[in-house]
Amino acid sequence: MKKIWKLFLAAIIICGTTTVLSSCGGDDDDGGIGGGSGASGGASFKTAKVTYTISVSPALLTDFKVNAYYIEDKNNSALPETLGSGSWNKTVEVDASKMPVTFELYFALTPKNRENGAKATVQGDMEINYTMSVVSLKSDGTTADSNQAQNKFKGTLSSSTVVSNFAKDANASKHLSITVNKDGKIK
Questions:
Q1: CB within 8 A of 32, min separation 6: which ones?
Q2: pLDDT tens-digit series, residues 84-127
């Protein structure tokens, strides 16, 4: 009788130990609460926040209209906004469901005096600085990934500068571009 009792007790201990150890496994496929990857601490990719910035030498606005062009999401073409002063900022948030999206920023100068051969009325060194910052945010508000692109155009206006030629050179400046994938990774 003692032998049967010991076998019964051994079987209970073996079954109980197996059950306890298997319930402590850390190999969850769903990534924990929120459905994100296990490394993200349970939060999933929610939005991409994009900040566009352009600053120009204020004197440039005397001879030129400056338009900022930006891409807000994959269904939009470039949206223009005219700079009313020496700086322009725009921040947009795009839901993760719209990804992948390639965000872009560029500018276009248009001479205010469109007469053939019109000259600049202001003189000096002119700069156009433009920056785009992209942050992908998790559902808990923390950063999943981030990147920034920036560029600068420099030119000199003088009384002999033809404004249409200056605009052509400036408008050939590089477009800034950053892509956010479906998982929130930025490239």
A1: 38, 41, 42
A2: 999 999 999 999 999 999 999 999 999 999 898 999 999 999 99
Verify cis geometry, omega within 30 degrees of 0, for the bond prior to 100.
yes
42: CB partners within 8 A, 6+ apart: 31, 32, 33, 34, 36, 140
Give the burial class of 106: count Cβ atoms within 10 A of its Cβ; 0-12 exposed, 13-18 middle, 19 or more buried. buried
Burial per residue of 9-23, b for 16 or more beta-carbon CB atoms within 10 angstroms, e otherwise = eeeeeeeeeeeeeee
Q: The whole model's pTM is what?
A: 0.74
Strand 87-95 vs strand 143-157: parallel, antiparallel, or unpaired?
unpaired
Of the candidates 104, 107, 98, the residue with the CA atom closest to the CA atom of residue 127: 107
Per residue in 120-141, pLDDT tens? 999 999 999 999 999 999 999 9
The two structure tokens encoding residue 99: 């990804």
Name residue, tokens 């269904």.
75
β-pairing, 64-70 with 101-111? antiparallel
Among positive and negative, which fits the CA dihedral 139, 141, 146, 149? positive
Cα dihedral sign, 17-23-24-28: positive
